[in-house]
């Protein structure tokens, strides 16, 4: 019985790490909970519970979550290590995220468009 309680406490503790870390990574990318839930193939309410630390994702969902949020499993599970600060603006991070979602043909088209040099600040 004591082992079950210890495992339950570990799961609760892990959920309290993953939820806020997922929220921070999502915010960093400028995504909504609904967008992340859609990419994960889960209901918005389920993803909301995950971010609030009320539930743990399954291993396959955690894997997809890392891909969608461009975060490592270590980052989401609270294993920190010294990393250089992210100096990209939120708009650049969102753009990079969107570009990573493009298929090869669309990525090449985007590169061709950018190489035209028609963009001005």
Topology:
Elements: H1 2-29, H2 33-40, H3 44-51, H4 59-69, H5 73-76, H6 90-100, H7 104-115
Helix pairs in contact: 2-3
Characteristics of this structure?
elongated; 121 residues; mainly alpha; single chain
Structural overview:
- By secondary structure, the protein is an all-alpha fold.
- It has 7 helices and no strands.
- The chain has helices at residues 2-29, 33-40, 44-51, 59-69, 73-76, 90-100, 104-115.
- α2 packs across α3 (44-51).
- The longest helix has 28 residues, at 2-29.
- The model has no long low-confidence stretch (mean pLDDT 84).
Most strands sheet: none
Poorly predicted segments = none
In total, how many beta strands? 0
Shape: elongated
**Gyration radius, rounded:** 18 Å
Number of helices: 7
* Gap between N and C termini: 64 Å
The SS-based structural class is mainly alpha
Strand content: under 5%
- What is the arithmetic mean of pLDDT? 84
Order of helices and strands: HHHHHHH
Helix content: 55-70%
Q: Brief description of this entry?
A:
The protein is built from seven helices and no strands.
